Amino acid sequence: MTDTQFPGAPEKPAAPRSWKAEVVTGSDGVYNGNAVRFATAKEAEEYVADLAFRWILVRGTRVVPSDDPVNYRWNGSDIEPVEKED
User: Fold this and answer.
1) 60 vs 7: CA distance, rounded Å
2) Dist CA 69 CA 37 (whole Å)
3) Residue-wise pLDDT tens for the chain (86 aa)?
4) Does residue 40 belong to any structural domain of this protein?
5) What residue numbers bound the domain in which 71 lies?
6) Which of 20, 52, 62, 54 lies closest to 38 in space, CA to CA?
7) Domain total for the chain?
8) Among residues 11, 20, 29, 34, which is most buried (max CB within 10 A)?
9) Following DSSP, what letter does each residue of 12-78 receive, concatenated?
10) Rounded distance, CA 83 to CA 57, Å?
C-alpha cells in the first residue's frame, strides 16, 4: 500500500517541470536568473558552473525548481534551444 491510499495522508509535492540557474553578483546577496530552463537539475548545475567560470563577479550560485516549461538543454559546453511540443 502506498501512502496516497491512506485517508488524510499528505499529498506528495509535484515534481518541478524544470530547473533554473541563479547567480549572486552583488553584495546584496540577491539571486538573479534568466529565462533558461532545463529538464534536469544536473543540466542547470553544469550550466551555472560554466557561467560562473566565465563571469568574474559571481559571488554565489544555486539551482532551483521551476514551474516553467523546459526550453533549453545543456550539451556539455553550451545551451541549445528545445523545440516546443504541440
Assistant:
1) 43
2) 7
3) 444 455 666 666 678 899 999 999 999 999 999 999 999 999 999 999 999 999 999 999 999 999 999 999 999 999 999 987 65
4) yes
5) 16-81
6) 20
7) 1
8) 20
9) PPPPPSEEEEEEE-STT--EEE-S--BSSHHHHHHHHHHHHHH-S---EEEEEEESSPP-EEE-SSS
10) 32
- d(Cα 82, Cα 70) in Å, to the nearest integer? 7
Report d(CA 20, CA 9) in Å as an integer: 30
Amino acid at 22: E
Q: Can you give the length of the chain in residues?
A: 86
Whether 11 is in a domain gets the answer no
| Cα(66)–Cα(59) distance, integer angstroms | 22
Residue 58 maps to a domain: yes
Let me know if residue 1 belongs to a domain: no
